[in-house]
């Protein structure tokens, strides 16, 4: 941290210790966990230093490569500390409700997850829109699918103003027919934060811009009449039922996240967004990046053991 | 046409001649143009018969392959008749306004076109969602870009219930950095018909579900401060101005289309959606189909001379 | 009917008999019911002639005065025919669902009904906005309350361009604390058709502009903790639960209305919108008119026996 | 202030002096202005004490009666201090834009102002919904009309749960045909904050819930063809043009208000929301209260000299 940033912080939060020296923090016996909120390229080195002494919370995206992520995992294992990845959306009441709806048996098998995450700016200096915005959806997906990782990713995108893509489209292909897709865009005239999530027996819309009814559950479904998908004519059955917007708690996600991390550190609870979630997201991003460079060719997502 | 369908039509529209015999229509000297609204697979054969005697209007998609489309073009040239493709959206006041906005010099160069065209059902029997819904956007794009055809297409999608895809994503890559993307889906719980269209100096949202304000023009733009896209830090300039929803005429698209076709047939006007538009759309669909089968690998769009 | 209007109708609907002579219709033994869709001022005289021979369906508003409405009722009783009032909204799936929700025991007592029914134009030539648009809400209210009539009405409004009010507000005061209010306006820049309907234990929003989710039911309520409304501090309990938008049939209201009328005429079913509904609406409108002329002073709604 | 509230404030804002003694504040030579944010019933007495020594900012509503408001005005005049009324909405960018649009010559004469200000809760302990929510609209109206006060007010409402009305409707009648109306409601299932404002040549919608496009200006108007409002048929001319949502500054209202008050106190600027605005609002509320008690009879708004 630049030293000139310390004075205003000390003035505003006089009860808080502020320092520009990581070592001071690492030596402080009162500190259990170090949060790393710095440019992505510095995550690996800073986290490595912190892991030696403390638990660590790292901002998303965890690292720039799957290799770095695995190195952190191994170091943390050896040091016996826990790495948390700051996937804040996972702690929002809306995403928790989404996970609950998808896990319920009446949702049917998940068919697709379609996210639009677009707005005007802000262009990042160090990462493209893929690495800036897509981690939110990949983290949500990791959580909602109980830790599944896509088999392959196809990604297209364009860098209109610099070397970094400002618009991109990711299609995640799973081993079954679940197909998530994410549209990320820094050039949109309106802010959209909307997910369509289709199951065989229920469907869901998650509109994060809606101040109250963020989750809408549709009792709608499609099924094949008869068992033969090759039958002609194809007889589809549509079920159109009620829509429900469940009441959501108004608790702030960050508060829930901090409480959860405290429970993990102090009481040994299992992290919701630990290193495995971080690795799943980074492996997917890395494959997306390679696909982008090859014009959309699907790239396998590989997580070395 | 099945003969049993004739009676109710004759009862309801007694002034209209109804027949199940194409030849009767083709022999009728009062008929200038034959409209073909049949399953796609029959388009080529029926149009070929009609071309010998009449001008022809063919429903979208024009044909199942670029080869068929070219064969129709050549036959029509030899017969001296005109082929119209029923790209109805091109005649809507909203799409006309969109074309006008994009063509104006203050729009800047087009950066992207992002369309979401989703709803629940109806599953088609003979074509996938790509061939059913994407032609609308490809036709709009052909019109709005004054006839440009993408260089390559990347397409991903999944067939959840039959052999035909029910959800698909197409990215069109142009020779410059214009990047259209289309999301088509028969499995969505809500009906969305929305296009985001970004230019370097203006942006536009086309919401076809809005009964009145279908087009919203945003006086927003992004530009690089300085000329060096490799500069660090990257200095982006955002312009945020007013939004305008222009008043649109309420004329029905079908009425405008029919009047336009009459003007072409009777007075020799140039077709807005002639065989060239049809060929551009079919060539793109064919490339998309091949990309879909190869997991998203970008496929060149080729139109043989 | 003006005779020159007959020709185009005959051309378009050749199976339909068209005449400009009411007597011809009244003499026709194949006719069971005469529908009167003419300017309001002619309703009484035309209906009186028709009643002598046929059942009658009269467009809303039934008449210009409660006296005329009662005269029609008496004449119909003597002639043994039925009068139907064309309160089409009562036959929409949305209003039927609304009535069902309000009647259910878990709705609690109705607290208020607040309707906004505004748009730009069309100015009527013969009636103010009160007599043009408010009948829709008064008819819905009559249906939803199972035939209750307000005790008093307070109405304010202004005529900006002619002698006829173009904006008006009606408050209906019932003997209990149910309080409907209607805002009608020909001068609004946007079209709004929205009703808020509050019960003690559930609440409802009816948005007729929403193509699909016209009815939204909120599991929300307010109640007093303890029994003493004079207690200080007042302890209110808010219940905030889920919102549900029930699926509605897509049947056209006019079709349901015609079927219902046929069932009444042919099979003796009880009319949903008979003369009593018409009288309730007209008595309320007449009181509203008098209140309007007196600057909002509440006027009693009186229905002579 | 209760003394036990001081400790947490001191802990959180250590740089701020906190005291439970008004006299300490009034004696402090560094204090120029005292802000009174207490229950309404205490406003008069506290403001009277403060006026003797300081400028005063009073929360809305200023007082419980026009008599109290005039007493404050007279005391402030004698003491040579300024009273500010905390009409925060007047300092929002949206309301400032609204005032600017209405004042422009192309708006035409204002025809109506229709506000819906409803939500679920919070029931106030000391004032009805009229005194709680209507002051916002009355303050906006006072500002937008450059200080006009209505001639008469008609108000209806119902107290469903206590002695205080929880739903109410106010119609303000001006000497010309401008007619504002305000719907305030603590029992609505959804939060609405919307104003329709109609001029003879332009119209405006102010939706305070919209995070970005709070103001929409419609280039729409109605006029009489010919000059004779008694002509039959009445020929109305409707002009339907574009809609524009002007970009609004994102400055916080409270910041602008504080800066404005500082400019008044330190540099002698003229208060936007001074005692005259407070008196206009309170006189209107008092008339509304009396109308409410008389079932909607219009009551004159009187401001004693």
Describe the model.
4 copies of one chain form a homotetramer. The first copy, chain A, contains 8 helices and 12 strands. By secondary structure, chain A is an alpha+beta fold. The first copy, chain A, has 2 domains: 3-88 and 255-274, Rossmann fold (3-Layer(aba) Sandwich); 92-249 and 283-300, Dihydrodipicolinate Reductase, domain 2, CATH 3.30.360.10. Chain A has a 9-stranded mixed β-sheet with strand order 11-10-9-8-4-7-6-5-12. A 3-stranded parallel β-sheet of chain A has the order 1-2-3, sandwiched between helices. The first copy, chain A, is globular, with a radius of gyration of 21 Å. At the A-B interface, strand 4, strand 5, strand 6, strand 7 and strand 8 of A face strand 4, strand 5, strand 6, strand 7 and strand 8 of B.
Describe how the helices and strands are arranged:
Four copies of one chain form a homotetramer.
Chain A: H1 6-12, H2 22-27, E1 33-36, H3 43-51, E2 55-59, H4 66-79, E3 83-86, H5 93-103, E4 110-120, H6 129-144, E5 152-158, E6 167-173, E7 179-185, E8 187-199, E9 203-207, E10 215-224, E11 236-245, H7 253-267, H8 275-293, E12 299-300
Parallel strand pairs in A: 1-2, 2-3, 4-7
Antiparallel strand pairs in A: 4-8, 5-6, 5-12, 6-7, 8-9, 9-10, 10-11
Helix pairs in contact in A: 3-4, 4-8, 6-8
């Amino acid at each position: 941290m630049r030293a000139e940033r310390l004075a205003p912080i000390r003035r505003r939060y006089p009860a808080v210790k502020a320092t520009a020296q990581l070592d001071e923090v690492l030596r402080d016996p009162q500190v259990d966990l170090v949060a790393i909120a710095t440019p992505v390229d510095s995550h690996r080195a800073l986290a490595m230093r912190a892991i030696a002494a403390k638990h660590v919370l790292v901002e998303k995206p965890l690292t720039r490569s799957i290799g770095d992520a695995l190195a952190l995992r191994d170091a943390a294992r050896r040091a016996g500390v826990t790495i948390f990845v700051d996937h804040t959306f996972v702690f929002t009441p809306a995403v928790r409700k989404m996970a609950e709806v998808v896990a319920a048996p009446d949702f049917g098998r998940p068919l697709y997850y379609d996210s639009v995450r677009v707005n005007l700016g802000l262009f990042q200096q160090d990462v493209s829109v893929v690495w800036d915005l897509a981690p939110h959806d990949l983290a949500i997906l990791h959580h909602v699918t109980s830790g599944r990782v896509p088999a392959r990713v196809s990604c297209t995108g364009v860098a209109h103003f610099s070397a970094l893509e400002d618009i991109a489209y990711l299609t995640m292909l799973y081993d079954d027919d679940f197909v998530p897709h994410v549209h990320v865009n820094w050039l949109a005239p309106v802010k959209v934060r909307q997910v369509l999530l289709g199951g065989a027996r229920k469907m869901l819309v998650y509109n994060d811009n809606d101040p109250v009814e963020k989750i809408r559950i549709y009792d709608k479904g499609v099924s094949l009449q008869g068992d033969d998908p090759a039958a002609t004519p194809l007889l589809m059955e549509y079920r159109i039922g009620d829509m429900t917007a469940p009441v959501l708690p108004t608790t702030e996600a960050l508060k829930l996240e901090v409480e959860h991390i405290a429970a993990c550190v102090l009481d040994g609870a299992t992290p919701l967004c630990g290193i495995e979630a971080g690795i799943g997201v980074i492996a997917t991003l890395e494959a997306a990046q390679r696909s982008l460079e090859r014009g959309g060719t699907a790239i396998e997502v590989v997580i070395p053991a």
